[in-house]
Specification:
Elements: E1 8-14, E2 20-22, E3 27-34, E4 42-48, E5 51-52, E6 55-56, H1 57-60, E7 66-72, E8 78-93, E9 98-105, H2 109-113, E10 115-120, E11 124-125, H3 126-136, E12 141-144, E13 150-151, E14 154-160, H4 161-174, E15 180-185, E16 188-193, E17 201-204, E18 210-216, E19 223-227, E20 238-243, E21 252-256, H5 263-277, E22 281-289, E23 299-303, E24 308-319, E25 324-333, E26 337-339, E27 345-347, E28 355-358, E29 361-364, E30 373-376, E31 379-385, E32 395-399, E33 407-410
Parallel strand pairs: 12-16, 17-23, 19-21
Antiparallel strand pairs: 1-2, 1-7, 3-4, 3-24, 4-9, 5-6, 7-8, 8-9, 10-14, 11-13, 15-16, 18-22, 19-20, 22-25, 23-24, 24-25, 26-27, 28-31, 29-30, 31-32, 32-33
Helix pairs in contact: 3-4
């Protein structure tokens, strides 16, 4: 576990000639953020513009220079947590001190600021469409664990590339694909499922500054109708009607079936709209000491006085000056439901928060296949996460007394 009292930051700058400088002793303020509807990480800092052996700091740091932010927990971790190229450069001269203020964005900023016209024929897979954009803009690619759903014929005219990417991934989700985040890390671009982080941080009242919650039905969609292509007079016929939480009234969304899209695919897309927007909106803002390794799209577990469950990080702002962070999170649910042989809905026996009897055996450092495992003693434990993102070891347990030492991911059937 991370000891937050040992967190340290440093900032490294690479000049035009490839020389690297650690400027942590000049830094006065430092922060970075990942926002909900953006794909690029934004970082900023203010530094004393002092004279060095290489000249003033402003002679070293210029627009286009690469800036890396690193964090250490004082023990095992010393990692790059953000990087970006200087886009905004501002030298401020004062009577007692000169400052240099810079704002930086990572490689994905090119796609936020660039428009393009793109055409995808019917049947183009998500992976091919997404990676073609990365290739055309010369972005080094990392891990792709996103969907590869076939899309209908699609044309984008004068659209920002970041919007095209998000729409492609959103369309894949509507067709049953997994929700994913586009992320730059250490210079490589990856597409990863939400909640794919191996370490899941737990936020409780005793390690968090505040939880702010809101519940709203203002944007609730309760009905989706599927309409076909228009006839010669422009009239469109209703081909399907899907109802959701209509007790809140009829709030209707229209889904237009593409000319080469089957009614079955259109119904699946309409169902996904209800799944995504047909529920009561629950928002939570969490303010806590900084965990610099936490990113947008990560899964966290929250145990406040009112709620207990899994949440996804929708946006996050790190403030190294105050050693704090602010997260906007969305409820991820406590597990999956299924149906028995006669079609009736059933709920899995164990839920998050249950106290269970661990049989003893192995607990793992993550839920993914191949994760390192350690021996753990049998005893009582609390279910803190279920249906882990890696699926191989889907349950996360924490012992509740000294009888057991289990604190990690375990297999199905490891407890009762």
């Amino acid at each position: 576990m991370i000891d937050l009292s040992n967190i340290k930051y440093r900032v490294v700058v690479m000049d035009e000639e490839g020389n690297q400088y650690n400027i942590k002793d000049f830094i006065q303020s430092l922060g970075w953020e990942e926002n909900e509807k953006e794909i690029s990480t934004r970082s900023s800092f203010t530094a004393r513009n002092d004279k060095t052996s290489k000249g003033y700091l402003s002679d070293i740091i210029k627009p286009g220079c690469l800036v890396g932010i690193f964090a250490s927990d004082g023990a095992s971790f010393d990692e790059e947590v953000a990087r970006g190229y200087v886009e905004e450069w501002n030298s401020v001269e004062g009577s007692s001190q000169n400052d240099l203020k810079c704002t930086c964005y990572d490689e994905l900023y090119k796609l936020q600021k660039s428009q393009d016209n793109r055409y995808y024929p019917s049947g183009t897979g998500t992976k091919s469409a997404v990676q073609s954009i990365f290739d055309d803009w010369g972005l080094p690619q990392g891990d792709y664990r996103g969907p590869n759903t076939p899309h209908g014929k699609t044309t984008y005219k004068n659209r920002y590339l970041s919007d095209i990417l998000l729409e492609l991934l959103d369309d894949a989700v509507k067709k049953g694909g997994e929700k994913c985040v586009i992320r730059a890390a250490k210079g490589y671009i990856s597409v990863l499922p939400w909640g794919s982080n191996e370490t899941v941080y737990v936020f409780k009242a005793d390690n968090t500054k505040s939880f702010s919650q809101s519940v709203s039905t203002a944007n609730l969609i309760t009905r989706v109708i599927v309409v076909g292509q228009g006839d010669d007079g422009g009239k469109r016929s209703v081909e399907a009607t899907l109802n959701g939480e209509t007790r809140y009234g009829i709030r209707q969304r229209i889904y237009t079936r593409g000319s080469d899209e089957t009614l079955s695919d259109a119904n699946s897309a309409a169902k996904e709209i209800l799944n995504k927007e047909g529920g009561i909106e629950r928002k939570m803002t969490v303010q806590s000491p900084d965990v610099p390794f936490l990113r947008k799209g990560d899964l966290v577990y929250i145990m406040s006085g009112v709620v207990s469950g899994n949440y996804y990080v929708k946006s996050i702002r790190h403030d190294a000056e105050t050693y704090s962070m602010t997260m906007e999170v969305e409820y991820a649910g406590t597990g999956q439901t299924g149906s028995d042989g006669d079609g009736k809905q059933k709920i899995e026996e164990h839920q998050v928060g249950d106290i269970v009897e661990f049989h003893g055996g192995t607990h793992y450092v993550s839920s993914y296949p191949g994760a390192k495992g350690y021996s753990a003693k049998a005893g009582k434990a609390k279910v803190t996460i279920k249906d882990g993102p890696g699926k191989a070891h889907p349950w996360h347990l924490i012992h509740v007394d000294d009888g057991s030492n289990v604190y990690g991911w375990v297999d199905e059937g490891a407890f009762e």
